[in-house]
Design a protein that fits this description.
The chain is α/β, with parallel strands linked by helices. The chain has 15 helices and 20 strands. The protein is globular, with a radius of gyration of 24 Å.
Length: about 500
């Protein structure tokens, strides 16, 4: 059975989110929808799942017997027609058990009870069905929503960024099980930005940009990952959006003799340890980096990646212990327990080391939805001249190639647009150390490649980039690679 869309259009004030989208998703395939944040992916699946209505256009189920038009007023209508959506951040009723959450809206029976036990065993054996949902983590929330969808035996299963809440092991298991769903002719639709997931598991790729369909192609005929990669590159090149060949020249990052002064520094975090109540902990872990390095730390939220981020630049509001040693033009040793972010910056500056940070929470740590783009971009600028501040903001907007005006609110930016602006803002200050957390989140394939090139080039001029990421992007270029598992950092190389 084919799920077919014809001329789907959705508009909001001042923006067309979906511009006459026509495409089809075949059953027995993993159909990936890709594109930068703000491309229209979530709006598209919201329409497919009945949680939003299109302004015009039609949706059909097509098989050998003909076409059946689908009319949805609610999510229940979509479920009744065999279409189930699992959201990136599912809503969970915390006062009841996992079992009760999974069975919400499902008619109870002995068969349902048996089916549920089998689904748990297959998809998430560590999930405790009789545990109160309030005591579960984000991965458990995802599995509860997934099982609520699967127990209904949908013809179409839509997953919005399913890997974002899962560890690498859980993610691999999920996709192996999705492959089995294909074998029973379930139509699987996945939204993901993750190029590795696309290359390894996708049968078809639909690429959206600014509400427009750029391409929708079948790559299942490709025999190897490299062949898939080549095909995707060619598709994007054909649409004048080349993934490669747009590398930013080193000259663009240089200013006078600033980069010619080769700074030498070394930083070491020793025996970091914390046990927060509402986050995963970090247990007696050490970590180091030096000038000229690209360092990758791979882990999931559940393994403590966000907790580690809070410790590394002293944003933690929980008790933490350990020692931070900074060796630049002088050496400073800090007690992590007694250090906040102000002392952190002061210590690095006194050692002659400038630090930049792009946090995982880009909306509230890197910026604020309530301020203007101008205010966000000029936060580091040491001038009271309104003309200079405006000129600087326009320069950064142009550099980032983002379509926004300085006086618009940050809330009008998509995740990918915000990411690009924050990067240009931080790079303009020419930091010696740049912490980047979940750097590739929200970027499409083209912009992921551009950012990879930018990071490699930046680290290649004797500066250091620290990547905290759920994925192993840039692992092959890293000088040091750490894995974070169960709150413990392990250096792989």
């Amino acid at each position: 059975m084919i799920l077919s869309l014809e001329k789907i259009r959705k508009q909001f004030p001042r923006k067309t989110v979906l511009n006459d989208i026509s495409l089809s998703f075949e059953s027995a395939k993993i159909n990936v929808i890709a594109g930068e944040n703000g491309a229209g992916k979530s709006t598209l699946v919201n329409i497919l799942s009945g949680s939003a209505c299109c302004d015009s256009g039609k949706i059909f189920f097509c098989d050998e017997s003909g076409k059946k038009e689908l009319l949805f007023a609610t999510e229940k209508d979509a479920l009744d027609n065999g279409i189930a959506l699992v959201r990136q951040v599912p809503l969970v009723a915390e006062s009841i058990t996992c079992r009760q959450n999974i069975l919400l809206g499902v008619k109870a029976s002995k068969k349902i009870k048996t089916d549920l036990e089998l689904l748990v065993k297959k998809w998430c054996p560590s999930l405790e069905l009789d545990k109160k949902a309030v005591n579960t983590n984000a991965a458990d929330h995802f599995y509860m929503a997934l099982l609520n969808a699967l127990i209904r035996k949908p013809a179409v299963l839509i997953l919005d960024e399913p890997g974002s809440m899962l560890s690498p092991r859980q993610k691999n298991s999920l996709y192996q099980n999705l492959q089995e769903l294909k074998s029973i002719s379930v139509n699987v639709i996945v939204i993901t930005h993750n190029l590795n997931e696309i290359l390894e598991y996708a049968d078809t790729v639909t690429y959206l940009k600014s509400g427009n369909l750029i391409f929708s192609k079948d790559i299942s005929v490709c025999k190897t990952i490299e062949e898939k990669k080549s095909q995707l590159n060619q598709f994007i090149t054909d649409m004048n959006n080349a993934v490669t060949g747009q590398k930013i020249s080193a000259a663009e990052n240089k200013s006078g003799n600033d980069l010619m002064q080769k700074k030498k520094f070394c930083v070491e975090y020793k025996d970091m340890d914390c046990h927060p109540v509402d986050h995963p902990g970090i247990f007696k872990s050490s970590f180091s980096f030096s000038s000229g390095q690209l360092v990758l730390v791979q882990g999931s939220r559940e393994s403590g990646l966000e907790t580690l981020e809070d410790i590394l630049y002293m944003m933690a509001d929980f008790k933490k212990t350990g020692t931070l040693v900074i060796k630049g033009n002088k050496e400073i040793s800090l007690d992590i327990e007694k250090t906040d972010i102000r002392k952190f910056f002061k210590a690095f500056n006194s050692c002659g080391i400038k630090v930049g940070i792009i946090p995982s929470d880009k909306n509230y740590r890197g910026s604020n939805p309530g301020i203007t783009v101008l205010q966000m971009l000029t936060v580091h600028l040491e001038t009271n001249s309104s003309k200079r501040r405006l000129a600087f903001a326009r320069y950064i907007i142009k550099k980032a190639n983002v379509s926004i005006t300085p006086y618009e609110k940050v809330s009008n930016l998509s995740g990918g647009m915000l990411q690009k602006l924050l990067l240009e803002r931080e790079l303009f200050c020419k930091p010696d150390v740049l912490f980047m957390c979940s750097a590739f989140q929200g970027l499409d394939i083209k912009n992921t490649q551009l950012l990879k090139n930018r990071i490699k080039e930046f680290a290649g001029v004797n500066r250091c980039v620290i990547l905290l990421s759920p994925d192993d992007i840039l692992k092959e270029d890293a000088a040091s690679y750490y894995r974070l598992e169960g709150g413990k950092l392990c250096r792989i190389f």
